[in-house]
From TrEMBL:
InterPro entries: 7TM_GPCR_serpentine_rcpt_Srx. Residues 12-272 form the 7TM GPCR serpentine receptor class x (Srx) domain. It comes from the Eukaryota. The chain crosses the membrane at residues 6-27, 48-69, 89-114, 126-151, 171-196, 216-238, 250-273. This is CBN-SRX-133 protein. Keywords: Membrane, Transmembrane, Transmembrane helix. The keyword NADP does not apply.
């Protein structure tokens, strides 16, 4: 019982940190940027999704486990609805956003003229809306199927209600995440290949260096974010079955699930907010130097 309350407290603290980091990210991003570009819009929406998932853990999962509720005593319809929205539709939304981020860079690098024509159409907003619809479909379809996801307060884990569905669902989820991650990484590799080997005319060497550094930072961000979901699914589908004990199950199932949203928020905060702040500070410094530098006569 002591271990159960201890791991519940850890889950609460990690989820609270994830909510704070992601909420701080999208609030700070909107404060720094009056108009968000396509990539920043996708990160902004992803930050909101991360914060909502962390909030659902704090407001639903943690109280049930803290009060030692039994699965059979929890409102089944509520449990299924929140679990499917959090651990199914909400979970798949992250990798879908990663594909859009990578595809956005490929289009900008390989088809700049097409991108300029598409600016008249809110393509990013439409893409985000489609991702939301796909995520909601996954949640609603899951609610109607025989292998519904529920939260088990005793083990602090989201898993199928029927034990006979566990193996098939784990295999399906792992394969889905790996396929989506592979697509996103493929787009990222295409973008980096274009960036390294393409010769851009009309700009200075300094501008070329800054351009490559900016795109390399975006590539690193995406690869890290792609890896988070794959690692979590491997923890849940593979490693968890190789260990025994409540503590190990908590680490590979619940803690891994909550931790990816903390790390995801930190990555976006590092590569967007702090980088943008340094860029603004550098521009302000250059402006001050230009103002006070001696003029040539």
């Amino acid at each position: 019982m002591l271990l159960h309350h201890l791991v519940t407290c850890v889950l609460f603290l990690v989820s609270l940190l994830g909510f704070i980091v992601n909420a701080f990210f999208f609030l700070k991003l909107t404060a720094l940027q009056k108009t968000l570009n396509s990539f920043q819009k996708l990160c902004f929406v992803k930050g909101i999704s991360n914060a909502l998932i962390c909030a659902s853990i704090i407001l639903w999962a943690v109280p049930l486990s803290a009060f030692s509720a039994k699965t059979e005593n929890v409102w089944r319809s509520w449990n299924i609805g929140i679990s499917e929205l959090t651990a199914s539709g909400g979970y798949i939304f992250g990798p879908l956003c990663q594909i859009l981020m990578a595809a956005n860079r490929v289009i900008v690098l390989y088809c700049p003229l097409f991108r300029m024509r598409m600016e008249r159409v809110p393509s990013t907003n439409i893409s985000i809306f489609v991702c939301v619809l796909v995520s909601l479909y996954c949640s609603i379809a899951g609610m109607q199927g025989p292998c519904v996801l529920i939260y088990h307060p005793e083990t602090l884990a989201w898993s199928p209600e029927l034990s006979t569905c566990i193996d098939s669902m784990d295999g399906l989820q792992l394969a889905t995440i790996i396929i989506l991650t592979f697509i996103a990484i493929l787009f990222n590799v295409l973008a980096v290949f274009k960036l390294i080997y393409d010769k851009v005319s009309g700009i200075t060497d300094t501008q070329k260096s800054r351009r490559r550094k900016r795109w390399l930072a975006m590539f690193i961000q995406n690869v890290i974010q792609d890896a988070l979901h794959v690692i979590d699914m491997i923890n849940y589908s593979v490693l968890d079955k190789l260990v025994e004990g409540e503590g190990f199950h908590f680490i590979f199932m619940s803690l891994s699930f909550a931790l990816i949203y903390v790390l995801d928020g930190i990555v976006m905060l590092r590569f967007h907010v702090y980088t943008q702040q340094r860029a603004v500070e550098r521009k302000n410094w250059m402006f001050v130097v230009a103002q006070f530098s001696p003029r040539q006569t």
